Amino acid sequence: MAVSVVSTPAVRYPDSGDSYSPSDPYPEYPFDHLSSKPNPVYEMVRRTFVQLGLDAARFGTPAWNPLGGFIAAGSSVFILCNFVYHRRFQESKRQFDAKCIHGSVLRALCDYALIAVGPEGRVRFGNSALQSCLWEQVLSDTGAAVVLDFYDKRRAPVSAKDLRFFVTERTFLGRVTSVEQRDDSSDAIEVPFGDESLLGEVQGTGGRPARFRISDYKPERIEAFHSGSLHRYVIHRAVLESDVVISLSKLKTHEKVGVTCGLKGFVGMVGHKDCLAHHRFGSAAIGGDEYPERLRFLHVVSAYQDWVCGRDAGAFLQGPAQILGRTLHRTLRRLGANMAGAWWGNDTAWRMTLDLARIAHYAGADGAMRPEMQRRHLSLIDGIVGGEGDGPLSPDPVGSGVLVFSDDVVAGDRVAARLMGLDPQAIPLIREAIRPMPHPLTRMGASPVDVVWNGNSRKETELTPVLGRAFRPPSGWRRHFTPGRR
């Protein structure tokens, strides 16, 4: 096992004018359409496979199939993309590129997945974005709509899938104007995770159950999914029926778990987001991890948020109550208050994420956990434009110019953290992923993984930050990543 890193510091995403097709007629390229302008991103994706020696015997011939060792002919592949939210009106294009994956990376990955699955297989991509994300807009903003149009015109078996069962529309001020509850009777697969859930390791105060929360959802709903030794997740059938899942994520920071790369991407397969435990209500003094103890005055704000989210949509003055809640949250964030679990002391979100990673690897199409892996997992991290600061929704863009590919999602994330200049041992999401549990996530253990960087072999511990400095952490993590301070 090795991780492939391709770094080109000055690289830029190509525009969508030529459907992100390659500019060179590679022997294995399955289509007759080429870009009239250079497409360095397609070449970078290709090099991540080449330098690992994938299908080396046939490299340079039309039969070259670099992903064929992971993806069998006739397979169903699902690409979990980071489509967290559409482009907001105040965002520049570069700011948006730091937030979501780019269509040029998706197009190249889909081409090689199509080569592997052959004419009898299929490739789908998508995820479960935030509940108020505009799906068609995020496809357009990322360039994924251009990719879809390219394949549709050629009748290639590629499609996009919105995995959400619950969608809302909000005004800019935060008032919910519509709620769409989609029929989930055939696509919602419940996975009872039970005692193996890492959430079972945390308890509330005084022997009471932990009060798990996710912003903007009814508290009783999430507590119904997670209570005592009961822990349930609702996964979209499209993922669990796939033979191979590829995590196509961004190289960026995350306010709740530190970084959001391949592992965090598994949150995107959840259809009902009210089963996602993001934090626990309140401060540590009352069994929570929502904010540091020094900010315990925020308890009244948390209680108000619980009250608003627990009310029915048509309740008296519910619209103004929602607007007030959003305004309070935005104002306190601007004043530097880390709310809703957005800090290094969040001991919930990483546990939920690793639960989902194990489900992605070991749950059958019926939702039952099996002792053996049910599908292969690959990871491609898009760091052409990376994101630092307050990700995942508002990262500041950095020209990191890097792609990371691995057939081990944990190894890929650990290398990505080092490329960001962040210690993976200081990030519970990555550090705890190597636990030798009944359903292990990685083959590497604690040993440093081998890395091929621009054709040269290196040990993981020899890696240096791609920016020449560390990515700036989210505001709630800066003390954590500052030596000698917690």
Task: Describe the protein in words.
The chain is of the alpha/beta class. The protein has one domain. Helix content is 25%, strand content 20%. It contains twelve helices and 18 strands. The chain has helices spanning 40-50, 93-99, 103-117, 135-142, 144-153, 219-225, 237-240, 299-310, 318-334, 349-362, 409-419, 428-431; strands at 2-7, 76-81, 122-127, 158-162, 166-170, 176-181, 188-192, 212-213, 226-227, 230-236, 244-254, 258-260, 279-280, 376-390, 394-398, 402-406, 450-453, 456-459. Strands 1, 2, 3, 4, 11, 12, 14, 15, 16, 17 and 18 form an eleven-stranded mixed beta sheet that branches. It has a three-stranded antiparallel beta sheet with strand order 7-10-9. Strands 5-6 form a two-stranded antiparallel ribbon. The mean pLDDT is 91.
